[in-house]
Amino acid sequence: MRKRVPRKEALYVKYMRVGVVSVEVTTSGFPLNVKHHNAVLDPFVCHGKLFDWQLLVRRLESHMKWSLTKNTASISLSKIQRLFFRSPKPNTIALKQESEEELEDDIETKRVALLGIRL
After folding, report:
1. Using CA atoms, how far apart are residues 74 and 41, in angstroms rounded to an integer?
2. pLDDT (tens digit, 0 to 9) for every residue of the chain, 119 residues total?
3. DSSP letters along the chain, please?
4. Cα separation of 55 and 57, whole Å?
5. Cα 118 to Cα 111: distance, rounded to the nearest angstrom
6. Residues 109 and 117: beta-carbon distance below 8 Å
7. In what helix (H) or strand (E) does residue 20 lie, and over which residues does it extend?
8. Helical (H) or strand (E) element with 89
9. What are phi and psi of 14, to 5 degrees?
10. How many CA atoms lie within 13 A of 37 on its CB side?
11. 37-57 burial, b if ≥16 CB within 10 A, otherwise e?
């Protein structure tokens, strides 16, 4: 006698697209905290595939995890870059130039006072 195998429903997808999904991400307890970051997940597209419902949901979840990880990682990397490689602010540049000019004037004044030589 043959054992009965439980039947599964099959789902043929001719074309399916789950559009852009927006989520708000907040992490805590990680080295880089992301607070209230609005991530946009890539669209999920499949066509000409045969699935059962569980496999379709697993593939959709997997795609969303990958897309969220990629998006959040890029935000974290930009935070690290801003943390370690800060570009000077425009006001800082102006102050730095003024302080360099003042330093040169001070050097010139000291040179004249000590050596009596003007350049």
Report:
1. 13
2. 678 877 878 888 899 999 888 888 777 776 666 777 788 888 999 999 898 888 999 999 999 989 888 877 776 666 666 656 655 555 555 555 556 666 667 767 766 666 666 66
3. -PPPPPP---EEEEEEEE--EEEEE---SSSS---SEEEEEPPEEEEEEEE-HHHHHHHHHHHHHHHHHHHHHHHHHHHHHHHHSPPPPHHHHHHHHHHHHHHHHHHHHHHHHHH----
4. 5
5. 7
6. no
7. none
8. none
9. -75, -50
10. 21
11. bebebeebebeeeebeeeebe
> What three-state secondary structure class fits 4?
coil
Q: Tokens for 9? A: 């429903």
Q: How far apart are CA 108 and CA 14, in angstroms?
A: 81
